[in-house]
Amino acid sequence: MPEKVPVDFYFDNEIYEGTVTNLSRNGLHIDAEMCPPFESNLEVVLILGDEVFRLPGKVKRLVNRDGLSGSMGVELSVPSQSYCEFVSIVQDYCDRRSF
């Protein structure tokens, strides 16, 4: 990804903040001070300009920093067509920049 993108995620009736550091059609990697437990269901809300992506998913990977959860891999349950199109645009942009 060309830059980190702020994101909110909803877990256990609470709103948390994080930063998307990587994304694909099937998932996201999010840095966050608080990460839900492994296999937890959550909803990720990604706002980009006028577009709001509400992405249901499940925590599939946790990376600890200093004994605390510092980042997580989220597998998306049902990525929308518009989200998949957005990811394709970002990946094409990144591929062109690598030359």
Provide an overview of this structure.
- There is one protein chain.
- This protein has one domain (5-97): Beta Barrel (Thrombin, subunit H).
- The mean pLDDT is 88.
- The protein starts with a strand and ends with a helix.
- By secondary structure, it is an alpha+beta fold.
- It has 1 helix and 6 strands; from the N terminus they run E-E-E-E-E-E-H.
- A hairpin with a 2-residue loop joins strand 1 (5-11) and strand 2.
- A 6-stranded antiparallel beta barrel has the order 1-2-3-6-5-4.
- The radius of gyration is 13 Å and the shape is globular.
Briefly summarize what is shown:
This protein has 99 residues and is of the alpha+beta class. The protein has one helix and six strands; from the N terminus they run ββββββα.
Secondary-structure arrangement, i.e. CATH architecture: Beta Barrel
CATH topology: Thrombin, subunit H
User: What number of domains?
Assistant: 1
Kindly state the percentage of residues in helix. Answer: 10-25%
Strand content: over 45%
Query: What class do helices, strands and sheet pairing give?
Result: alpha+beta
Strand order in the sheet with the most strands: 1-2-3-6-5-4
Number of DSSP strands?
A: 6
Which regions have little confidence, pLDDT < 50, spanning 5+ residues? Answer: none
What is the 3D form?
A: globular
Main sheet characteristics: 6 strands, antiparallel, barrel
Order of helices and strands: EEEEEEH
Q: How many H/I helices? A: 1
| Rg, alpha carbons | 13 Å
- Give the CATH H-level superfamily: predicted glycosyltransferase like domains
Separation of termini? 15 Å
